[in-house]
Amino acid sequence: MECDVCGRAMWRWPTLPTERDEEIWSCSWCHASTHVGGDWFEVARPPYLPVEMRWETAVADGLPLDVSHAFGIFDRTLCGIQQVGMSPSEYGWLPQRGNACGACREAAGVIDDRWPQAMKGEDARVSVARRL
Ligand SMILES: [Zn+2]
Ligand SMILES: [Zn+2]
Description:
single chain, 2 domains, 9 strands, globular, binds zinc ion
């Protein structure tokens, strides 16, 4: 699938067989995601979010607790630390916090710059609702 934000190829998240019939695709360049299937949408494209609202804190065994990393993609923090079984926590990742990882902060800024201004509007990405 092509990323509607930057035009690059997206990759599909591995899904567990127990999960509902929903595919999640992510762009490794601008980190936009697109969900296909699900209860309410045929295709859901979450709108742009500013850096301080966009990321979740990564949790994994072996990840030091004194530094807060942002969960980037599958098994990996935004700054590139890979740890099997890593998952996003329910807490948002706040780049302005003192314990936020500097490399994650930098990566988040770079990714933010990859979104064209026109795609940062609330209605810039088009979702297709499921017809009930
Ligand atoms: Zn993209
Ligand atoms: Zn980090």
